[in-house]
Automatic annotation (TrEMBL):
This protein's GO CC annotations: plasma membrane
Membrane topology: Multi-pass membrane protein
Transmembrane segment boundaries: 25-43, 49-72, 93-114, 120-139, 151-168
Family: Belongs to the MntP (TC 9.B.29) family.
Annotated Pfam families: Mntp (PF02659)
Primary location class: membrane
Entry-linked InterPro entries: Mntp/YtaF (IPR003810), Put_MntP (IPR022929)
Lineage, broadest ranks: Bacteria, Bacillati, Bacillota, Clostridia, Eubacteriales
Organism: Lawsonibacter faecis
The name this protein goes by in its record: Putative manganese efflux pump MntP
Underlying gene: mntP
Molecular function terms, GO-annotated: manganese ion transmembrane transporter activity
Lineage: superkingdom: Bacteria
Amino acid sequence: MDAFAVSVSSGISVRGFSWRQAVKLGIWFGAFQFAMPLLGWFAGSSISAYIVAVDHYIAFGLLAFIGGRMVWEALSSPCGVEPGPTELSARRLAGLALATSIDALAVGVSMAFIEVDILLAAGIIGLVAFTFSILGGLLGRRLGCLFQRRAEVLGGLVLIGIGIKILWEHLSV
């Protein structure tokens, strides 16, 4: 769900968002959502306490930083100049993909203690994230066309909101 929302936000904020960029989003998010449960599964219980203790802080920090930067860029650009990047950089994609997949690492740790085909489970998770990230990016592109500059601010606020949601869920447990 977080990868979908972040994809919508990316589709909103990137000027001229294209199918190619949507597929790029899908590949990054799908790959991270596939890899993180595998990493967690391999790590097993030896580091699970450390992952669970900090995953929400990392996700919040990354999303709040990227979202805050989007809002800042939208509000500080002169009138008549379209805010937002024209391309999703590998650095930005890696940060977003990592932030939205950290929980999958902890899920992978828990899967190490039950009998599950980890490759099948991770494959399904990755495929769903890939598909919904593409759809979310394309939906965001449509929303961006409708709302123009306000969409960049909205996209940044969505990222910050997702970060707060992740932090809130983990701190209220």
